[in-house]
Every structure is written in structure tokens, then in C-alpha cells.
Amino acid sequence: MAGLPSRGDPSARTGVISQLSAPGPSSDPRGQLAAVVREHASRVAAALVRMTGDFATAQDLVQDAIEKALCRWPADGIPDRPDAWLYTVARNRGRDVIRRTANYRAKLADVDLTPSEPDDRLRLIFTCCHPALPQPAQVALTLRVVCGLTTAQIARAFLVPQATVEQRISRAKRKITNARIPYRIPDPDELGYRLTEVLAVIYLLYNEGYLATGEQADSRALADDAEWIAALLHTLMPTEPEVAGLLALIRLHRARADARFTPDGGLVLLADQDRGRWDQAAIADATRLLVRAAKRRQPGPYQLQAAILACHAEAATWQETDWEQIVVLYDMLLCLAPSPVTRLHRAIALRYAVSPQAALEEVDDLAETLDRYYLFHATRAELLRAVGRADHARVADQRSLELTSNPAERAVLGRRLQQPA
Amino acid sequence: MKYVLLFVETEQFEKQLAALPQDERARAYELAGKWFADHADKIRGGSKLQGRHTATTVRLDGDAEPLITDGPFVEGKEVVSGYCEIDVTDLDEALRMLRTWPGCPVVEIRPLEPGS
């Protein structure tokens, strides 16, 4: 993907036409349309909340306008000012709502669509990810409000019925109105845990897209949306190191995306990936971002995970990986966020930094907590093989196969089981 | 915007409180009292409730005689132990108040119906 215009800096993406003519990950017309909508939906939403003074009403108006755009634009072409088009449609629809308030003419005159205050879009994000809303609703609202996805698109991406998504969104909006969840940026002393909530939503979106298999195009597009929101958030909050950390994490993953799959959709493990297919320019960019964030000396889980990825990304070969450094980073991560899955990943690094035997002992320690996790058994199988216990390894591989339904992962495990012991 | 705070005690909290030496228990009540005093401008009344053993639940089912049973309406490890009404700008202000609440470990925030 080297040489493409940076998708990272939303402020650099003002020229819609030049953006559309650039070849890129979303060179299909549907993807282009989604990208244009995403670019403008949250600005229009923010302007409408300002106009109507009501979050829920504004969201309905924007959603209607987006539905209309998705019908009309493929035939009529994308207008020069998509935001103005969306805004006009939404405003016209909203006239009745606004007319009920006495000073609607004054309000209409007040609203200036461009440039939207950066604060406005931050407010949108923080309201969508308010901790008083359940996480599935935070996710659905964020996609709808911040990225402008329709409920149908969200339902397809998460493989759930559209009615479920609609219900999540309408319940959330009712709660926002009835319990009076404010439309505001948290105060500095609340920002820490409120930001954690936002970052968790973006990370979940990213994972959902990252783990999706070849046929699930709608789910894979979530990775795109996640990177876009992370980049937007980084532009709006440039001094928050964990925001930069998450953005770097996502970009480091994506820089290697091409090498993760064979042409027929098979999964290629990190050790076997053709490192020539990694996007070195993107890796260098993401690493610079991470180094800048680290200078603030406020390490967090996203920065540390990104740093681990950077260690992998910078190694010319699997053998040259700096495993000692990776073990240290996992130790720091476990201090901040203890988790058995993180311990499992640390054990993999331990295998190369110390010995397979040391790693196996660490993994066996996790047997009880991770018995239902396919990766636990797959890792254990590899370690058993490395210490010469091939029979036990096959049993562990078999167990792992029973526990995953992801076709790409099943294929890797299946191949392994077919190899002579 | 008016909300009711429902203070909820857990079995564990009750036991811990009961196990405290008397002066420390008095100190715990004092801290809770100070919290109410600190937020007096937002609090519109409320009360601590007597223990769960004093609760009686009535179930009304149409024409049948009301069913009267001993105990809270849900039997569980958590029980409402007090309530107060507050008047604040929005949910975030209620959440902010509760960040310094020194008492029971669970609090439910319920907005009142407008006009009630």
C-alpha cells in the first residue's frame, strides 16, 4: 500500500474528488460511497445536534439523509459538497421538529456547517461511548453516528439481525434522552476512564474486522472504520498517548495485512509470512507515532501492545526478533492489565528468549483458566512438539481444532495434524 | 433533572461493617454523613431504611386476595438499604457525586418521570 495518500489524517482528506480518484483499499464503488459518508456524517450530525439541541432527533435526521444518499448518489453521482447535501436533506426533514421550538428561524440562521468545531465531534464520540450505555449499544451508536453506517450495514458486519441493531440503537437513544446523558466532553478528572471506554469500542471494532474471514467483506470493512475513528480521535486529542498507541497498534497490524492471507484466503502465521510484503513505510510511520507518544512517559496497554507489534515489524526475519525486549514489554503489560491471554502470548516469546521448556511450564500453569481457548491448545501443541513430545502435541492440536470455528484457523490446524508426527 | 439514588448493600458489605470495631463503624457512618452534608445543596430528602428482616412484600393480583410475604421483593445477596432524591444537571453530575460516596458498594441511579 506504499505510495498511497495517507488515510490517517482526516484533516488532509478534504478534497472529496481527489480522494475518490485515488486508488485505495476502498476502490470499489460501494466502499467509496461508504468512505464519503463516513467523512461527512459526523460533521452533519454534530451540526444538527447544535441546531435541534437534541442528540436522538439529530441522529434520526442524519440517518434518513444517509439512506437517501445511498439510494441517490450511485445514480446521480456524488455531489461536490456531500456534507452540504446531507445537511440540507436532514434539515428539510427536521423542519417540523424544529418548528416546534419558538426561535427556530434564529437557530437555522445560526447554523454554519463548516468548519465544524472539532469539539463537536469529540462530544459525539463521548456521548456514543458513555459508560451508562451497554457496550453493544456503544458500538452500534458509534458506527451509526460517527461513521454514518446504516443499521443494515451494522447488522451485516456483526452477523446479527437488523432488528437487533435497531433495538440496541433505539434503546440507547431513549436512555440518552430520558436519563439525560449529557452531550459533552468529560472533565479532565473523568477523562481517563471515559477515554478507556472509547478506546475499547474502537479496539473491539478493529478486532471484529481483523478476525473476519475473506467472505465477510462487511465485517472486514470494520477494520477500516476503526482505523478512521482512531485517526480522527488522534487529530482531536493529539496529546493523549493511549489514543496514539491504539492508532499505531491498528496501523502496525494493517501494515502486515497483505501477508496474513494466501491468495485463496488461507491464514499465514507470523513466523511464515513473507516480510517483503509488509508495508515498510506504514510500519515506519506507525513506529514514529508510537515513539512520539512514548515520550510523554504515560505507558498504557495500547502503547505496550503496539510496541510489541513494532518489535515484530522491525525484525527482518522471525529469528532476528528481539524476544527479550518482547518479554519485558509483556511483563509491563501484565502489570497494567493482568490477563491469562496476555500471559499465554508472553509464554510464546519466552520460548525464544529462554527455552521451550520454560515456556511450556508457564503455559501449563494456565491450563485451568484457558481450557476453552483454542489458541491455548495450539500453543501448547507447538511447545510439546519443540520438547519432543509429539504424541501429546497431536492431542493438543486436536483439542484446539475442536474449539475454533474460524475456517482460516481450522485450515492451519488441520494441515498441522496431517503432518507426520 | 431529578434522580433517585438507591443505595444497595451486599451481604459481604454488611458482614464487613458488622465485623468492624465500634469506633471504626462509627467513623464509617460519620463519613457517609459528611458526604450527605457536602452535597446537601443537591439532595432533596431521602432516608436510610431498616434492615431486610423488616421488609414485607405485597403482590396484588386482580381479584384475588393480595399475597403478603416476608422479605424484600427480590431475594438476593443485594438489597436496597436507603434512598435519596437529588436534583442535578444531568447523569454525569450524578455520577460525579457518587465517585466520592464512601458507603455501600452499589448505587442505582434512576431518573424520575418528568413532572413527578
Description:
The complex is a heterodimer of chains A (421) and B (116). Chain A is mainly α. In chain A, 40% of the residues are buried. Chain A has helices at 16-21, 29-52, 55-76, 82-99, 104-110, 118-128, 135-146, 151-158, 162-178, 188-211, 217-236, 241-255, 280-294, 301-314, 323-336, 340-353, 356-364, 374-386, 390-403, 407-418. Helix content of chain A is 69%, strand content 0%. The model of chain A is unreliable at 1-27 (pLDDT under 50). Chain A contains 20 helices and no strands. With 116 residues, chain B is an alpha+beta fold. Chain B has a single domain (2-111), classed as 2-Layer Sandwich (Alpha-Beta Plaits). Chain B has three helices and six strands; from the N terminus they run βααββββαβ. Chain B has helices at residues 11-19, 22-38, 91-98; strands at 2-10, 43-48, 56-59, 67-70, 78-87, 106-111. Chain B has a four-stranded antiparallel β-sheet. The termini of chain B are close together. Chains A and B meet through loops of A and α3 of B.
Give me some keywords for this one.
heterodimer; A: 421 residues; mainly alpha; Serine Threonine Protein Phosphatase 5, Tetratricopeptide repeat; 69% helix; 0% strand; elongated; disordered N terminus; B: 116 residues; alpha+beta; Alpha-Beta Plaits; four-stranded antiparallel sheet; 3 helices; 6 strands
Topology:
The complex is a heterodimer of chains A (421) and B (116).
Chain A: H1 16-21, H2 29-52, H3 55-76, H4 82-99, H5 104-110, H6 118-128, H7 135-146, H8 151-158, H9 162-178, H10 188-211, H11 217-236, H12 241-255, H13 280-294, H14 301-314, H15 323-336, H16 340-353, H17 356-364, H18 374-386, H19 390-403, H20 407-418
Chain B: E1 2-10, H1 11-19, H2 22-38, E2 43-48, E3 56-59, E4 67-70, E5 78-87, H3 91-98, E6 106-111
Antiparallel strand pairs in B: 1-5, 1-6, 2-5, 3-4
